Amino acid sequence: MSDSKDYIIEIGETNSIELDEKVPIKDNWTASNVVESVSAFISDWTPFGLVASYYVFSTCLYMYCSEGLIAIFWFIYMCTNFYIAGTTVLEAFFSITPCREARKIVTQAQDKEWLFPTANSNLPILDLIIVAYLPNEQDIIMDRAIYALEQLDYPKERIRINIVYNTPKSIEPLETDLHQLPLRYPHARIIKVPNSTSKADNLNYFFTLDTGSDLIAIYDCDHYPHPNSPRWAAERFMADPEVDIVQGRCIVFNSTDTFLTSMIAVEFDKIYAVSHPGRSTMWGFGLFCGSNGYWRTSVLRELRMDGSMLTEDIDSALRAFSRGCKTVHDLNVTSYELAPTTFSAFWKQRLRWAQGWAQASMRHLKMVYNGVQDPLHEAHSKRNFTARFGVLSLLLIRESSYYLVTQYACLVLSFLIVKFPSSGEELWGLVYFQYPVSQWLFIISITCLIATLWITNQVKSEFVSRRMIILFSVLYPFYLMVNATIGLYGHARQLVRYSSWNPTARK
C-alpha cells in the first residue's frame, strides 16, 4: 500500500475515491480536528484558570500578611469602596432633575392632546434599523418587524423600517416571508447582508447605502420600541441642533419569567433611569449603549462600527465623544427588551460585555489627557477637567473596581480561615468592624446604597415591583461579587486574546 501522499495524487488524477483510499485523508482530518479542539479547550479554560488562581493566591497572601499590612489593605479597600458608593449615589441624585424634566414634558404633551412641537412634514427622515442574527432570532424577528411597521407613531412617509440581518444558512420560509413585507408595508426595507459575521458587519453594510435619511436609529432584534419613541427622539434633535446622539431608556419586560430576570430588570432601571442620565449630568457626557439609540446620519456614516471590538457600540460611543459629539439621555425614548432567562445565557452575555469594555477602556483611556480629536463641533473642541475626570472614573476606576471588590472579599475570606469566628457577633465584628474607621465607612456606604435604590424605586418601570427592589437590595453584595468576577474573567479573556462571539439567547 502506498502512503497517503500517493493516494491523494491518485485521487486527484482519476477524480474518483474508493472507500479504502479515504482512510489516510480522514486520519489527517481527524488529527487536525484534535489539535483544534485541544487549542479551543485551552483557550476556553485558560481564563478560568487565571481567575481561580487569582482568588487562591490573593487569599493565601493575606493569610501570611502582618497585622499592620492587613490594616493598610483594609483601609484602602474600604476607602475605595466608599468612593465608588459615593459616586454612585451622586449620579443618582443628579438623575433626579432629568427624571423630573422628562415627566414634565410628558405632562405638557398630554395637556396639548399629544400635539408635538414639530409639524409632521418638518420631521427629519428616519432610518430605523432592526439588526438580527437570524439563526438566533428567527423565532422573534417577524413579530418585531410587524410591530415596528404597524405600531410606531411616526409619519410613514418620513420613516423607513430596515430589517438588516445575516445568516450562515438559508432559513425558509422565514426569509421569503420577510422579503415579502415591503409588498404589504411600503416603508419596509429588508436587507440580507452578504458575508456578514457580526452586528458591526450588518451596520457597516447599511451605512454604505444612500438612503437619504437625516437620522438613524439602531435596535437589537429583541426590542419593542415604545410607539412614541421615534417622535420623542426626533423632537430632541429638532430642539437642539448640537445634539448628535440621543440614547433612550431600555426596560426589561420579561421580569417575571425567572428570579434572574427580575434582578436584571431592577439593574436595568438603575442603569438606564438613574446611572446614565445622572452621569451625563454630573460629568457632562453621555453614551450610546448599543440599542434604542438615535444618531445623526452624517456622524454615524463617518464613524461606522469597528468589527474588531466585542462591544462595537461602546467603542463607537467613545469615539464619538473623542470627536466632540454631544450625546444626551432621554428618558421618554423608551424601549422594551428581553433579559436572559438562564444563568448560562447571562454569564455569556456579561462576559462578552466585560471583555468588550476592557478593550474599549484600553483604547480610549487616552482621552483623560488628550484633547478633542478632529472636532465635529467647534463649540465642543475642548474637553474640560470634569469630563476628563468622568472618563477616568468610567474607564479606569470602574475597571479597577473589579479588583478592589474581589480583593476585599479575599481579605475577608482570609480572616475566616485564620480566625474563624465562634459566634455571629464575632463574625459581624470580624468582617465589618476590624478597625474603628470601618464603622463609619461601612455605614456611609450602606446609606449610599439605600439612597441609590430609593431613587431607583421612584423611577422604576411598570415591570419592576417594590418587592424586586427590596430583594435586589438584600442580594446586592452577592450580585456585586458576581459582576466583579465576570469583570476579572473578561480581563483574563482579553489577556489571552479570546475572540469567540457568543450571541445572547432569545425566545
Automatic annotation (TrEMBL):
Example of a GO MF term: aspartic-type endopeptidase activity
Main subcellular localisation: membrane
Annotated InterPro entries: Aspartic_peptidase_AS (IPR001969), Glyco_trans_2-like (IPR001173), Glycosyltr_2/OpgH_subfam (IPR050321), Nucleotide-diphossugar_trans (IPR029044)
GO process terms (BP): proteolysis
Pfam families: Glyco_trans_2_3
Entry's localization field: Membrane
Gene3D superfamilies associated with the record: Spore Coat Polysaccharide Biosynthesis Protein SpsA, Chain A
Transmembrane segments: 402-420, 440-457, 469-492
Domain Glycosyltransferase 2-like: residue ranges: 216-414
PROSITE patterns: ASP_PROTEASE (PS00141)
Cellular component aspect of the GO annotation: membrane
Keywords linked to the UniProt accession: Glycosyltransferase, Membrane, Transferase, Transmembrane, Transmembrane helix
Membrane topology of the entry: Multi-pass membrane protein
Family matches, as PANTHER family: CELLULOSE SYNTHASE CATALYTIC SUBUNIT A [UDP-FORMING]
Protein name per UniProt: Glycosyltransferase family 2 protein
Species annotation: Cucurbitaria berberidis CBS 394.84
